[in-house]
Amino acid sequence: MPTDASKKTVPDLLAIMAALRTPGTGCPWDLEQTFESIAPYTIEEAYEVADAIERRDLAALQDELGDLLLQVVYHSRMAEEASAFAFADVVDAIAQKMIRRHPHVFGSEAERSAGAAPGFWERIKGAEKDRAAVQPASVLADVPVGLPALTRAIKLQHKAARVGFDWPSLRPVFAKLKEELAELEAALLESDGPPPPERRGAVEEELGDLLFVVANLARHLAVDPEAVLRRANAKFTTRFAGIERKLAERGRTPAQSDLAEMDRLWDEVKAAERKR
Predict the structure, then answer these.
(1) What is the DSSP letter of 195?
(2) Quick check: is 199 in a domain?
(3) 42, 44, 46, 47 alpha-carbon torsion, rounded to 10°
(4) What is the rounded CA–CA span in Å between residue 222 and residue 203?
(5) How many other CB atoms are found less than 10 A from the CB of residue 224?
């Protein structure tokens, strides 16, 4: 573990990135990167932060937060090279925004005394957009297209709900879920597998509608669908590993088994989980 005196700082990290991006002496791979080529890594690192939190692994969280910080430094360096902005501008912008959006902490004595009234964050954000807008924008305009689809669905639905476009309770959401499932079944016709080419477009559209309603159900339940799906993925991974382990004890692999046997082993793994 490095001592306080030997620990690297944010200026050190900025200098390292500058060196990596210096033509002639820098890293060839780093030099050829662009905003577009780095963006997928930025998204991946954010997911790895979420994964470390989900696993409650604070050592991993420290590493993953460092990787995510590197992404900010990377994009900032490329922007500085393009004379657009630098890391210090990013820091200043977010610091100013946090101060502006927390008048109950950083504002006048009257604002601090008033406290955080319900909905204050959205009202301040709305006022900022009103000041910046050249022309009226759609209610949905500021929901980033690049978000994971489930997360974006939730945000789109939240925005629409704030202006009254929402179901009042869970019952109509379940009704819509059943409706969309029936429409998907109808689009499939008699197909018991991938749809024929002439039906694929209709099937994909109905499946998308069904997933959108599932996201809406999660929103009405105040549940993060990305988080619960990650947990479901982890549960599936653990249980399938149990099947593989049981088959390995018999000298075989899943490819050497069949569905009936693996179904039976799956039930055994689930039963063992309940006993723990």
Answers:
(1) P
(2) yes
(3) 170
(4) 29
(5) 15
pLDDT in tens, 4-49: 778 999 999 999 999 999 999 999 999 999 999 999 899 899 989 9
Q: Is residue 24 in some structural domain?
A: yes
Asked if 79 and 86 count as a contact pair (C-beta separation under 8 A), the reply is yes
Mean pLDDT of the chain: 89
Is 251 part of any domain? yes
Tokens 């909905």 -> residue? 119
Residue 210: inside a domain: yes
Residues 243, 204 share a domain: no
Helices marked H in the chain — which ranges? Answer: 10-20, 28-31, 35-54, 58-81, 87-100, 103-106, 109-114, 120-132, 149-162, 170-188, 197-220, 225-249, 259-275
Single out the residue of 175, 174, 176, 206 nearest to residue 188, CA to CA. Answer: 206
Q: DSSP per residue over 39-87, as a string?
A: HHHHHHHHHHHHHHHHTT-HHHHHHHHHHHHHHHHHHHHHHHHTTS--H
pTM exceeding the 0.85 threshold for the entire prediction: no
- Answer yes or no: do 214 and 237 share one domain: no
The span from the CA of 112 to the CA of 212, in Å, is: 40
**Residue 148 scores a pLDDT above 80:** yes
Domain range for 158 is: 149-223
- Tell me what pLDDT residue 127 has: 66
Q: Token digits for 200?
A: 């694929």
As given in the structure block, the two tokens for residue 160 are 């629409």
Three-state DSSP class for 219? helix
| Residues 6 or more apart whose Cβ sits within 8 Å of residue 256 | 247
Give the type of residue at 171. R
pLDDT at 215 over 80: yes
pLDDT of residue 82: 96
DSSP 57: -
CATH number at residue 39: 1.10.287.1080
Cα 78 to Cα 99: distance, rounded to the nearest angstrom: 27
